[in-house]
Amino acid sequence: MKNIQGIQLIMESNEELLPDFFMDFPYICSCVEFDKYIDPVVPWHWHHAVELFYIKSGRVEYTTPNGKWIFPAGTGGFVNSNVLHSSRVSSTKDGTVQLLHLFDSELLTGGISNRIEERYIRPLTDRSGLEMICLSPEDPGQAALLQKIQAGFELEEGSWGYEITLRQLLTEVWLGLLELACAETEDIHKNKDTAEKMKAMMSYIQDHYTEMIAVDCLAREAHISKRVCFRLFQENLHMSPLEYMREYRLRKACMELIETEKSITEIASDCGFGSSSYFGKLFREHFNCSPVRYRGKWHDCNRNRHE
Question: Which of 124, 152, 206, 233 is 20 to 30 A from residue 239's alpha carbon, by CA?
Fold first, then answer.
């Protein structure tokens, strides 16, 4: 199981880059240790792979375009393919740990279009409006699925029969999820191209964050009006376009503080803030410390890890 302390995004699309994800066995098992994040937030992203997770300790908040969910220790869930989502620690206590299965549905179908895909896979991945399925140990059926999810993490990678046993467990979980999805009586109807419009506007911000960006430019990129642009950001990301731009620029600034020796003035200019004083003001409001202090804390943390 790989311990991760952050994610990498493909700049053009906001898709998460999944290292060690090979199509001969499209699966990754990860342990997310939020305490080792300087800022315990996983930013907005998506991936073609589906996501099964279990909260080992602490509390994690997931946000998708359709809402927010709180997952305490002992619960878990499913994030569907290509769904925009973000997550953050939802507890003031230390020790928030999340375990993740990320896999392509071809792991279950064998990589070819067949009856399994048509009957069991696509009814879940193509289900309109299905972004998240929450699993609670208080429900006997869901508790059984959580046990199977945990069992997958306990398998020894590389051991004899590992791939077949894991695939069997994930298949059993998949069938349980499909039953839960089919039992839902209320379907969320959203415009099918909303996600594509959001991805187009988010990609534009990522490509032009060093420049001054007007909301009119974002709207034109998605072929919508300025009013609709504001509405889509609020409905899907629960923030305004300007708030998303500010958050994205701050995260880029964090990476420059960590990975480069550039001055605060240079970073402010590189990340589209204009002046170092304005950058410092926004940074303190968001992270409760100055950029200089943030850089120092990160360097101290790295030294401690290597001692």
Answer: 124
Residue 74: count of CB within 10 angstroms of its CB? 16
How large a percentage of the chain has pLDDT more than 70?
85
Q: What are phi and psi of 165, to 5 degrees?
A: -65, -45
CB-CB neighbours of 86 under 10 Å: 16
C-alpha to C-alpha distance for 175 and 82, rounded to whole angstroms:
20
Strand partners, 68: 63
pTM of the model: 0.68
Superfamily (CATH H level) for 2-183: Regulatory protein AraC (2.60.120.280)
Output the CATH code of domain 194-306. 1.10.10.60
What single letter denotes the amino acid at residue 148? K
Q: Cα–Cα distance between 59 and 55 in angstroms, integer? A: 7
Give the pLDDT confidence of 235-256 residue by residue, as tens digits.
888 889 999 999 999 988 988 8
Q: Which residue ranges make up each domain of the chain?
A: 2-183, 194-306
Phi-psi region of 279 (alpha: psi -120 to 50; beta: other; left: phi over 0): alpha
* Residues facing residue 78 across a β-bridge: 52, 133
Write the CA distances from 74 to 71, 102, 236, integer angstroms: 8, 19, 28
